[in-house]
Specification:
Two copies of one chain form a homodimer. With 348 residues, chain A is of the alpha/beta class. Helix content of chain A is 34%, strand content 16%. Chains A and B meet through α9 of A and α9 of B. Chains A, B: InterPro entries: RGP, RGP_fam.
């Protein structure tokens, strides 16, 4: 399944270290990760030395590195889960894969350990089909094809820019749902990859993703911070916002987004009822965010991911800014991110 | 999983008898079908008495019945696979399920026989979610839920009007693909149901479907006949056309379309290379059909499925009629179908 056309040195695995000791995490992933270069970003809010076992090829970055490269004023953007975006900024590889540090490899229905990296690379290096839905899922998977009625002119597909993997065990629910259903676990292994159709929006989770940095890198951005968000996934929506930015960019530039395989196994972490007490505003804001992105139309002048992000930011400021100041901050942050992206590319 | 709110007498199973002896087909399905009423339509082109084993609750209809009810001029519409539409016309039930007579029950990954009827009814009687994609598939399946970022205002979903099941073994390919890959079989059991997002078109297959007759019955229509089509699925696109009509109607009226489970097992039938010699025009026509339906917009005046079909027919005639006379015939047939539908409903 792994495409021989992708070399190991075209891939960076970016890890956000939310806790300093990565020993057990990296040992679990050793068989899968050790061939690739890792970029490890230490959450600037945490203390303690990073612990990384031997035998990996990696670079680490800490708060001091962040401040040195982007200046202290922007450092806050890269706290918590968002520290990974600093890795996206520094990578020079074609493909970036990022997996949360509370996840370990999943097993498929036959009990065989999933190679999440190979599956992500397969998703990204085979075409996506956003313009017509194939009922037998990804026609580029082994043993699959296009079903009767699928126009031949659409069978070449388009470049896949984003691969969204899924999770077994602890599902990626919001804090209220997790608190209401504390026993709910995702046990269903769905053996499929599919392209999310053009113009359909979906809630991307940053837990287990991969993307083509050359196509859409600047759209993978750390811009949507809730006032009271913490260090648990269910307290954030930064990745959901980012995913809709990328989807709008892909729809506009003619790239595809896939979702489904690979799965990772999410370990237990945190207490959802505790999170609820923070008056999590994510639920309320999504009611505004989703219709906004669904109706977002970019102009023909937007020819690169950078252009697209700037257009989206302007629309965010104009249409959402009056609803809540969090949107104005997000718009400003998106513009800053593109400036930073261009500056880092120029410098290196 | 079966919804207790659906009674057995709210369901008709419609079978198109393409061959007169249904003994082995019905014996395979006995455990699943025998609780329900069957409507069996004999393909008006075939000879020989229908053979139906005892113990089923059914009505049969033959060419004479078709001619009596709709007159001889329209009878041709109901030949081959299309004879099932005569059953759709006569049914008075809320739900209709139709499975091709070369299919037998499939087994899931644990080797347990699938109850396709229960799964279809479950799909139709639980809400669909066409306005935002849920990455963990149908949130109304057991053990599933909405993922983080899914707007709460969209979590009630909408009525599901169409459930498209899939097939193991012989996949539903077009004649050229089947001829090119004679060994290709679908062996991947994907344990998922999902709502096809609003405004995304998909190639419905009539092999294994269910729908809510009260919501969209008039849109399940026999209108798109190829000049040289035969008795093999890969020689037809009538169901693909019909599926896009229904999808446009659902998108307009705010209903959902689900695809995925249940699977059926398709037995081998026919020779694709023989079919290719008929200069099958389905491939060429789909290049026009798909963009047409993708850009189809209905007016606010279309408030019922009948209204929608009439509007679609007018657009077919105007936009596609000049390309090929098959489209003009399809448009006329759609209008006739709605007239027939109304006449039968008034009469009974």
């Amino acid at each position: 399944m792994f495409q021989v056309s992708v070399r190991d040195d075209e891939v960076d695995i970016v890890i956000a270290a939310i806790e300093p000791d990565l020993t057990s995490f990296l040992e679990e992933w050793r068989a899968v990760f050790s061939r690739f270069h890792l970029i490890i970003i230490k959450d600037p809010d945490i203390k303690g030395e990073l612990k990384i076992p031997g035998g990996f090829n990696y670079d680490t970055y800490t708060k001091a590195d962040i401040q040195q490269i982007i200046g202290p004023s922007n450092a806050a953007t890269f706290s918590g889960y968002s520290c990974r975006y600093f890795g996206y900024l520094l990578s020079k590889k074609k493909y970036i894969i990022s997996i949360d540090d509370d996840c370990i490899p999943a097993k498929d229905t036959k009990g065989i350990q999933v190679d999440a990296i190979a599956q992500h690379i397969n998703n990204l290096s085979t075409p996506a089909t956003p313009f017509f839905f194939n009922t037998l899922y990804d026609p580029f998977c082994k043993g699959a094809d296009f079903v009767r009625g699928y126009p031949f002119s659409l069978r070449n597909g388009v470049s896949c820019a984003l691969s969204c993997g899924l999770w077994l065990n602890l599902a990626d629910l919001d804090a209220p749902t997790q608190a209401l259903k504390p026993e709910l676990r995702n046990t269903r292994y769905v053996d499929a990859v599919l392209t999310v159709p053009a113009r359909a929006m979906m809630p991307m989770s940053g837990i287990n993703i991969a993307f083509d940095r050359e196509l859409v890198g600047p759209a993978l951005l750390p811009s949507f911070k809730l006032a009271k968000e913490g260090k648990f996934r269910w307290e954030t929506v930064e990745d959901v916002w980012t995913g809709m930015c990328v989807k709008v960019v892909c729809d506009h530039l003619g790239y595809g987004v896939k979702t489904g395989l690979p799965y990772v196994w999410r370990k237990e972490r945190g207490n959802a009822i505790g999170s609820l007490k923070k008056e999590w505003e994510g639920v309320k804001l999504m009611e505004e965010v989703v219709p906004f992105f669904q109706s977002m139309k970019l102009t023909p002048a937007a020819k690169t991911a950078e252009d697209c992000v700037i257009e989206i930011a302007a629309a965010v400021k104009e249409q959402l800014g009056r609803i809540d100041p969090v949107f104005t901050r997000a718009a400003d942050s998106m513009v800053e991110w593109v400036q930073l992206w261009k500056a880092v590319k120029t410098r290196t």
